[in-house]
Amino acid sequence: MAGILIDKVAKQFGNAVALQEISFTVEDGEFVALLGPSGCGKTTLLRIIAGLEVQSSGKVMIGERDVSSLKPAQRGLAMVFQNYAVFPHMTVFENVAFGLRMKGADQARVEAKVRKAAELLHIEQYLERFPAKLSGGQRQRVAVARALAVEPAVLLMDEPLSNLDALLRLEMRAELRSVLREAGTTTIYVTHDQTEAMGLADRIAVMQGGHIVQIGAPTEVYSRPATRFVGGFVGSPPMNFVNTVAASGQARLGGLTLASPVDGPIVLGFRGEDAKLTDAAGGAPFTVRVAEPMGSHLLLTGRIGDDLARVVAPPAARIAAGETLGLALDPARIVWIDPETGRTHPGA
Amino acid sequence: MSAPRKWLYVTGVLALCAWVLVPIYLIGLGAMGGRLAVFKWPKAFAPGEASFAALATFLKIEGVWNAALNSLIAASLTMLFSILLGAPAGYALARFAFRGQSAFRLLVLLTRAFPLAILALPLTVIFIRVGLYDTPFGVSLIHTALALPFAALVTASLFMGIPREYEEAAWVFGCTRWQAFRKVVLPLALPGIAAAAIFAFVISWNEVFAASVLTVRERTLTAYLLTVLSESPLHYRFAGGFILIIPSVLFIFAVRKYLFAMWGVSSK
After folding, report:
1. Model ipTM value
2. Domain range summary for chain A, segments of one domain joined by +
């Protein structure tokens, strides 16, 4: 077991900057998700930690060891690839045993560890089969079992669930969480799916354009996004942003008055489920354009002034398109964003 | 497919098949039918009385077996050299991005555009000087030069078909570059490499010009037949041709899947 320290790691491909001086730490046994849209550098960062890519500058520490210039084999980690990379010419058993055999483990030890990993991921009955005879979900399990069998200090996962269908993804997600919790492995998990990151990770590092824009616990990233980008990227529906102008420390939206940290143009950010519906005069005027019954709730899409907003209403609410409602907001559950920089004002 | 297009397609396929198969069939007919059948016109569709007499007599011609042995040695060496040199080149083409990669790819093929006839005289002189003249080894060097472009390109497409992640996974789980190649890439590429090797073998086996120029006594089978058969009756020539064709056809048939893969056509 070991923590990870990423110290000012940067990467350029020719003239293109993929990562700009990234620094963060992962505690021993912690599960950190690298979340971001495609091209944000999250996979590059993971590959640098694995040693499959060489950083242009900076260093990577695993445990107390500087591994920056070590080959992948010497870093003491395991990895699950997006397309699983389960070796097609070996049986499931040999696949899971691969890392152990490379370490020179004797047959009895290999046997025991493979059984244990196979049991953990429920693939005992496939051990003698070849991967071609397995479904995507089963191959996925083999890839995870192969990684866990070596009992790595650090486990790296590169979008391991993205090739599975939605139902299987949900099932594997829950299972991964319990398996990894049990193993207590330090894990870095790359994904572009914010629900995956929210559900699995102890902390989420949101990346954009080769930067980490925010790193924190899922609830913190969700309710107090550091930038407008994070608020829009994390959560479904995304955070609502309403442009307004504050004067003398107050911003007015119809019948709703909120204390703002600065005067002048400012953006109000709030989550759809934090808005309470009132009558039109008692809150921010919200004109409903579409009402979608989602079963667990009613999703309202409409406008506040010129800005698009999505609000979550109780499933039984009787609301028709075209109605104008009022929204009441809890000042503790909103964020204020600078329209110029896109950054959240601290505190308020 | 619409009816006219389908018709065109079928005709095209038939024409191409005929282009290859009719000559082979006629050679076979000439080889089996004996002296009279060769001169008969119109040709019988099937040999009246098939006989292997001509083929048997042909195999008894003095020197045929020695020439066949030379051919075998030259072709085997060609196979060995072109894989040992071609497969690493193919691996490099498939796995590494380097400046001038596509130019290199084209250049590899362009070596085939250089006419051997121009090289024949200087090559002969050099081979005599260094003592390679009139040896199967010398012939195999030239044949390797001919087969190498194909070996490099076929193996390149082969390695490209093996996902990079397999190798990366092997590295992560404790392999060095070479171990990853040996344990993961090689087993997956082996059937294709075998096919590329056989293709190199066939190229050498069929080649006649360089073999004729560079040998006098230690002739390969093709070169030997060219000299011997020019003075033989016609049906023996057919017999010789037929015997030359058989191994090539069998080999190519055996590895067709991988040759298709090289041109991006799949055979189902």
Report:
1. 0.85
2. 4-229, 237-337
